[in-house]
Design a protein that fits this description.
mainly alpha; MFS; 81% helix; Growth Hormone, Chain: A; single chain; two-stranded antiparallel ribbon
């Protein structure tokens, strides 16, 4: 039966790929660019504290373990909010939730710049985590509104790649700001950028049907989006809590969520500690470490966009089996991600950057496929719920990564065991994708979705 379904799916995808070349309009790619810009700025708010961490640690007399707690604090509130935020997004839609949250996260970033004392900075990071909680889930759900299934890879890589690209420009930018203006300057700069994005999103984003009515989306592009498998923007699950319980019992949801959580452990360990590793273990200056750390993130960004996004969509459009293509990149990228172990075995900057670049490149090829699977497996109207489950579990792993790494550095005096644990997590993620996730296909709905009203 799967063989017949695969043949039918491949034929439909090939026809969809041909339709893509004649679809009128590119409004959907403007939406993808808007999402990518938001995640880029969103991740500046995560990069800034890792770049400012050494100066902040010295200014407040913190141990590496205490600094790891400060790095992790954002993820506590961020993670706890994921499932409630996902249900809220399914109930009222992405527009208003994102509008309010972007204003709040700008305010929380400014607060970090003006407070003093470890306790107040900790509180500001908790508020930032709560405010930024909708960002990824909202982008995943927006993708399900705006893109046909065969274009989900490239669209997802537009915002997933932005998370990596934030380090390419964010780490050097924040390094210069911290060098010139001190650690508080990093939060003033990223807060200002967040406020500008809040204004841009408020003015520019609307759902497809609203864009169509306003004359900002052509009829042919709207038809191409909807006929290509985009989810109904007004669909709301009839019983969200019953649906959530069913999703929590679903093996496919757990396989995707656990695999993605393991990826996120390694990713966030590098996101928070790579500058400290280069400065502390390889004895680089803040500025030089910031420039060196851009190399792995350039590799990650290109791999995310070109392999996890463009190549996946191109192969599917040419008629290759969608499940096989996505699964191959999902697992193959994680296998290459095992190269991060190289950070534990060398004290030579060039060798360390080479291994970390290879590892991050592999992880980043896998990441947009994993993220796009949220909208691919979610029942109609339940992308927020599936995204909330995945991101909640991911944040448990993300919260652990900087703390575990920080205390290992305190105990051993180096980062070797931090890289070993990250590599083991990647290996566990591979097993989850291979043996728990199964086929990448939509989970059947518990009951038909209702029509709601979304702004």
């Amino acid at each position: 039966m799967h063989e017949v379904a695969d043949a039918e799916s491949s034929s439909a995808q090939a026809q969809a790929g041909q339709a893509a070349r004649v679809a009128g309009g590119r409004t959907r790619w403007g939406i993808a660019a808007l999402l990518g810009t938001g995640i880029l700025i969103n991740y500046f708010d995560r990069v800034n504290i890792s770049v400012a961490g050494t100066d902040l640690q010295h200014a407040m007399g913190l141990s590496a373990g205490q600094l790891g707690i400060l790095f992790s604090a954002f993820t506590w509130s961020y993670g706890l909010a994921q499932i409630p935020v996902g249900l809220l997004l399914d109930r009222i839609g992405v527009a208003w939730v994102t509008r309010v949250s972007t204003v709040l996260w700008a305010c929380a970033t400014f607060l970090t710049a003006v407070v003093s004392g470890l306790g107040m900075i900790l509180l500001a990071r908790l508020l930032l985590g709560l405010a930024e909680a909708p960002a990824i889930v909202s982008s995943q759900k927006t993708t399900s509104y705006w893109f046909p299934r065969q274009e989900r890879g490239l669209c997802t890589s537009a915002f997933d790649g932005a998370a990596k690209f934030s380090n390419v420009i964010g780490v050097p930018l924040m390094s210069v700001v911290v060098s010139e203006f001190g650690w508080r300057g990093a939060f003033w700069v990223s807060g200002s950028l967040s406020l500008l994005y809040a204004l841009a999103y408020w003015l520019l984003y609307r759902n497809p049907r609203q864009m169509l009515r306003a004359g900002r989306l052509s009829q042919s592009e709207y038809r191409y989006i909807t006929e290509g498998g985009a989810q109904d923007e007004d669909a709301v699950p009839a019983n969200q809590f019953a649906g959530l319980g069913r999703l929590l019992r679903n093996r496919k949801v757990w396989g995707l969520s656990l695999g993605f959580a393991c990826y996120n452990y390694a990713f966030f360990m590098l996101l928070t500690w790579l500058p400290g590793y280069l400065e502390g273990q390889l004895h680089m200056s803040v500025l030089k470490g910031g420039l060196y750390s851009a190399i792995p993130w350039i590799t990650a960004t290109l791999s995310d966009l070109l392999i996890g996004g463009l190549l996946v969509d191109r192969l599917i459009a040419r008629g290759r089996d969608a499940n096989r293509v996505r699964k191959s990149v999902l697992v193959g990228g994680m296998v290459v991600g095992l190269c991060v172990i190289g950070g534990a075995t060398t004290h030579t900057p060039a060798v360390a950057v080479l291994f970390i670049s290879l590892g991050l490149g592999g992880l980043s090829a896998s990441a947009p496929v994993g993220s796009s699977c949220v909208a691919l497996i979610a029942p109609e109207g339940s992308v927020g719920a599936v995204g909330g489950i995945l991101n909640f579990l991911s944040q448990l792993f993300v919260a652990a990564a900087p703390i575990v790494t920080g205390y290992l550095v305190d105990d051993t005096g180096n980062f070797a065991w931090g890289f070993v644990i990250a590599t083991l997590m990647v290996a566990l993620g591979i097993l989850c994708y291979l043996f728990v996730l199964g086929r990448i296909e939509q989970v059947p709905s518990l009951q038909p979705a209702q029509k709601g009203t979304t702004a």
